[in-house]
Amino acid sequence: MLSLPLSWYLMLSATLFVMGALGLLLRRNAIVAFMCVEVMLNAVNLTFIAFSKYHQDYTGQVFVFMVIAVAAAEAGIGLAMIVNMFRHKHSVQVDEATLLRH
Amino acid sequence: MSSLITPIDIASTLPFIVLCLFGMVVLLLEVFQRQGQSRSYLAYVSAVGFATAAFSAWLLMGVEGQLVFHDMNYIDGFSKVTALLMCTAGAVTCLIAPRYLAELNADRGEFYALILFSAGGMIMMVSAADFIVFFMALELMSIAVYALAAYVRSSRVAAEAGFKYFLMGAFASAIMLYGIALVYGATGTTNLAAIGQLLSYGAASGSVDPALLLSKVSEQGALAGAAGYDTTTGDLLMLNYGSGTANMPLLYLGITLVIVSAVFKVGAVPFHMWLPDAYSGAPSPVGAFMASAVKAAAFASLLRLLALAFFDYELRMGPMGWVQVTFFLALLSMAIGNLVAIAQTSVKRMLAYSSIAHTGYMLVAITAMGYGVGDLDLGASVVFYLFAYVFGTVGAFGILAYLTRSRYYVERFSDLNGLGYRYPALGVAMTLFMLSSAGIPPTAGFIAKFQVFKAAVIAYGAGVEAGEPGALLLLALVVSGILFSVVGVYYYLKVIVHLYMRDPVREVTASDSGPARVGISVCAIATLVIGLFPGPLLNLSEQAMSQMEGRHDGVYVQYEDGAPIEDLQRLMREGSR
Q1: Would you call A70 and B280 a contact, using CB atoms and an 8 Å cutoff?
Q2: Which residue of A19, A50, B273, B507 has the fewest CB atoms within a 10 Å radius of its CB?
Q3: For residue B1, what pLDDT is reported?
Q4: Chain B residue closest to A32 (CA)?
Q5: Could you list the residue range(s) of the whole structural domain that residue A46 is in?
Q6: A5, part of any domain
Q7: Residue A47 lies inside a defined structural domain of this protein
């Protein structure tokens, strides 16, 4: 069967992961920063699935299920926190979170 | 096929089950509460939950160390001792919380449920034998603590602290996951001991033909994942366990990412930026919980990860080995933590930076553990340090919580002025905690620091004997550690000076909470007693390390349907001849 070599998947997921990490560090909007975390998690999922196929082993796919469940829980708590912050500041810009800098 | 769940599986996870049950009971009790009724009795309920969990961990002391839940969890000395540690930290946190929450008008039952669930996650995390369980438990712990950090909804500062903590925590989790994915890719398994075994073949049996090795491995079925390895493709996965030097880029990257994210959680420099904000912005009882239990759980699980999966000589001492990483992290954490703590005007921020410094001291012991031939028993000093550190930190945060009244946060050093005379017992307790953190006898902190530096000196001696490179650097680490802890004495004594030698700036009245007094007293007595009679706790922490199952040296994992993996190693040695 003709299929893409493993390295292509790894390159793609590494690119996605780095994009997510850079986005998290550089973007100022809390919701966008949070979405970047999700991009990172999905990049990891892609890595797991690629390796899982490569090794002919299901552990990686089981792991992906766990990651998806955890990502959902994290989304719940993260969005609640963003709402909470918005209530206090009427803004979701990360740079405006400066109360704690002494 | 064996049954799905055996009685020993259930028995071994009893501390976790008890904590989760109590968490659910607390949530249910909250349903039957009316608005405005006091919830402080829930603190006692949760404290009883922690006591029961600790008791069940104690009962399990007699059980022989083994793998449970189909190689997913360990029940061993390490998991039991650390479970005791988490339960103590959680119980004291619950005791100092109720009056503080009532003062801030945030007296709700979820608080205790979240603490219980989070502690359950910690216990699971330190007993994990597989990256899947490890990750799930890590998230159970972290997600509950994210919610706790922003728990006081009326507080702007807490909202910010919680959000920052969440974003950084999620970032660290993602990095950890990517690291786990790469390690899985390189080894084909997520089982910690199996990873350790697979990686140590090269070192143990000299040069082995990788193809032969992996065919043997796949025959065993235990590490069936590795069977997908193909020597002919020669792409990114250049696994050559035999020589095991530079052609394992995936593995090295994976291990580095896992370690980076673990030190993110423990707050080592340069991954510490979130920590002072989170500790000082969160409500004081939550600050206590984050600084003590969360950090202890992160350290304990880092210890297990390194000991089980990544203890191969090449991985520790090789050109990209993790000993060098922990060396620099330890040095930087001790330096930055102690120096920046001097400049703080807020006691909470000072405690946060001092906890970064404590991270540095514990990393010295981890560096010593991994240095040279590698002596896992030196890790016992970390376990002991965690006990001493937990009591000192929870106690200090607890006193700040005890002094807080509605709208009167006690944060600055000047708020403590003269309190030593007004509340003599409180003054004595705070003095004890500060002396312990500074490492002055006769407190627990002194013995802990002594143990940590002793471990490094032992590793130095062994390194010199074995002719390891850079043994002198380890000695330099010890010397700088001692110098920096002398620097640390300055800001700890500053607290005592304010307590006894300064005139009050404003009236501070303690909240006079009964449970908080119990919690703080427990910490103070423990700090003193451990300092005077360290023997039993030293034995316990040595037991924790020596009874760690699946250790790289000697104790091998027995797989369900095969010979012990030791035999595999012998097979391969014979095969390569």
Answers
A1: no
A2: B507
A3: 53
A4: B167
A5: 28-92
A6: no
A7: yes
What residues of chain A lie within 8 A of the CB of B131, using their CB? 63
DSSP letter at B552 equals S
ipTM over 0.90: yes
Residue B239 has pLDDT above 50, yes or no: no
> How many CA atoms, within 13 angstroms, populate the side-chain half-sphere of residue B512?
3
Q: Determine whether A28 is exposed, middle or buried from the number of CB atoms within 10 Å of its CB (0-12, 13-18, 19+).
A: exposed
B73-75 and B66-68 as β-strands: parallel, antiparallel, unpaired? Answer: antiparallel
| pLDDT score recorded for residue B540 | 92
H-run or E-run covering B66: strand B66-68
Cβ atoms of B548 and B304 within 8 Å: the answer is: yes
Domain count, chain A: 1
Strand-pairing partners, residue B130, are B191
Sort out which chain A residues have CB atoms less than 8 A from B184's CB and list them. Answer: 48, 51, 59-60, 63
Helices B471-501 and B347-370 pack at an angle, to 10 degrees, of: 160
CB < 8 Å & 24+ apart, contacts of B208-217? B208/B241, B208/B242, B208/B572, B208/B576, B209/B242, B209/B576, B210/B239, B210/B240, B210/B241, B210/B242, B212/B572, B212/B575, B212/B576, B213/B241, B213/B242, B213/B572, B216/B568, B216/B571, B216/B572, B216/B575, B217/B568
Nearest to A66 among B135, B175, B227 (CB): B135
pLDDT tens digits, B36-62: 788 889 999 999 999 999 999 999 888
**Residue that is written with structure tokens 């999922």 in the block:** A45
Contact B130, B190 (CB under 8 A): yes
What pLDDT does residue B168 have?
A: 92
Measured distance CA(B142)–CA(A19) in Å, rounded: 24
State the DSSP string of B322-340.
HHHHHHHHHHHHHHHHHHH
What CATH number does the domain containing A77 carry?
Answer: 1.10.287.3510
Q: Report the distance separating Cα B540 and Cα B408, nearest Å.
A: 41
Q: Return the bridge partners of A93, or none.
A: A29
* Alpha-carbon span B109 to A17, nearest angstrom: 39
Query: Taking CB atoms and an 8 Å limit, are B346 and A82 in contact across chains?
Result: no
HEC readout, B245-283: CCCCHHHHHHHHHHHHHHHHHHCCCCCCCHHHHHHHHCC
